[in-house]
Amino acid sequence: MTIDPNNPVVVASPTRPFLSRSVRFCTYCLMALIGTSLLAQPFMMPWSPWSWTPTTEASLVGADINAHLASLNEQGLTLQMQGDRPISVILPPVAWVFDTPPVLRVSLAFPSMVSPGRDSAPVLVRMLWQESPGEAYRYAESATNLTPAPVTIDRSMPVPPVRIHRLGVQIVGRDEPLTAVRLIKLELPNPPAAQRLALAWQSFIEPEPIANHSVNFLRGPTILGRALNRMLLEFVLTLIGLAGAWAAARRRPLSRFACLAPLLIAWFVVDGWATWNLARQARTERDVFASLTPVQQQAHLWGEDIAWAAEAMRHHAPPGATYAVVAADPFYPAHRLDYLLAPTFRRVKDPSQADYVAAIRANGDRFEAALNPNSPFERVASMDSDVFLLGRRVAR
What we know:
The chain folds into 3 domains: 20-42 and 215-287, no CATH class; 50-189, Galactose-binding domain-like (Jelly Rolls, Sandwich); 297-392. 35% of the residues lie in helices and 25% in strands. It has 9 helices and 18 strands. It has helices at 8-11, 21-44, 193-205, 228-249, 256-290, 294-302, 304-316, 331-341, 365-371; strands at 50-52, 64-66, 68-73, 76-80, 87-90, 103-109, 121-130, 138-146, 151-156, 166-173, 180-188, 222-223, 226-227, 322-327, 346-347, 356-360, 377-382, 387-392. The strands form 4 sheets. Strands 1, 3, 4, 6, 9 and 11 form a 6-stranded antiparallel beta sheet that branches. The chain has a 5-stranded antiparallel beta sheet with strand order 2-5-10-7-8, with no helix packed on it. The radius of gyration is 31 Å and the shape is flat.
């Protein structure tokens, strides 16, 4: 069989391109231009600023404030802690568009006249957001030190503004409860390119809290309202376009390596970030766990109710005592208590044969029998109405 080398179907291959050099050069240049434009857009695109300045009663209409209103004037909104709940402000529903800045700027101050004797307060400033009505609020936090002079905090928003239904802030004391704060302004500014680059880098290196997707996920951080993966794909498109244009200019086909190298770079960036973040999460979890008391560590591992029942048995029961567990599903709590209390205490299945009964969110006949006024047991300790320890009555 004779093959005509001039046949374009035969000539087209990765090493012998079908398109002419000029067409290939223009195509690759267009790819590089599109990739560069998309990549530079969040750093160069003009944004439409937005702000909320609480200075009058009208500015608070529709807002949910979880605090006591101390004062409202041209200096801002001064709030005092109400009960044990952190100070928070949720704005009315918003309807932002695509060019709304994905950067939140919070201006705060510490009202020393409300808390005399203090001139600063280390706090966590949490950005709260809700993506649809009725949905739970999510948050991202930043640490700062409040002073009587206004303090400004800038952070890249974890989601694009167009997806946000309601936005708010919560201010929490780090070392002790924050009793008062002055909220001056919330705004979505239009920062210059240099500041946007700094915010992008801050978003990239900021550790992400541990979550269900921390081990296996492809999401990565959100940088200036865009996912890291999207920005890496734009980066790949730019590199392949530049490599293809360079190859076309030199009258050579685009090599396979030039196509695979940008993809490998993007994969290494994502995988390296995820591994680095996982290591930081593990270090944080280790440090938090090490700072807990033994009882708190058991509550962290097994659950607060099981840890409480184990500690109650150690405190109230003499060594060698027997106990039974009654619960809606006794398998897990019974075997956890076996692990925590053996061999000092021995578990029996029948509560009527036990010296003590640990009731953990229980129901059923055995539970009702143990609580019967005529039963041989009495309550010796309680965590709440559903978790308590019963001991055999002592004859008087």
